[in-house]
Amino acid sequence: MTDQLRAMGILTGAELVAKYDAEDKAWRRQKRSRIGNAVWNKKDRCIELFDDAGRFMYDIDLDRCKSAEGVLNWIFHVHQKTWMTPQMMKDMLDMMLRVIPSNVLFHFGAE
């Protein structure tokens, strides 16, 4: 059965995790990475936001995103900006999920 699944391009759970980990490590090694209108600037430790025309709009200092509260403050802050679009918000959130450690974003049952 496993050979048939592999022939169809289906991965086991362990293979999927290994593939994701390798892709994630390669992605994090880049100095700048883009998800739509959001750019991860590794050197300056910030997420840069651009409008659809490519104009710089704002940067989010990740040194101020060391807690779930800090991340949420940024989300509310940029949400109030008149230039923020739904797509830019999605791109920013996708980038935050990519570059901010999950233990900062999620607290499962911890008080």
What this model shows, in words?
The protein is of the alpha+beta class. The protein has two domains: 1-30, no CATH class; 32-111, no CATH class. It is 48% helix and 17% strand. The protein has a four-stranded antiparallel beta sheet with strand order 1-2-3-4, with helices on one face.
Short description:
This protein is α+β, with helices and mostly antiparallel strands and 111 residues long. The chain is 48% helix and 17% strand. It folds into 2 domains: 1-30, no CATH class; 32-111, no CATH class.
Task: Provide the helix percentage.
Answer: 40-55%
Order of helices and strands: HHEEEEHHH
Structural class: alpha+beta
How many DSSP helices?
A: 5
Largest sheet: 4 strands, antiparallel
Tally of domains: 2
Multimerization status:
single chain
- Give the mean pLDDT: 83
Per DSSP E runs of 2 or more residues, the count of β-strands stands at 4
Strand order of the largest sheet: 1-2-3-4
The shape is elongated
Distance from N terminus to C terminus (CA atoms, Å) equals: 45 Å
Radius of gyration: 17 Å
Uncertain segments of ≥5 residues (pLDDT<50)? none
Percent strand equals 15-25%
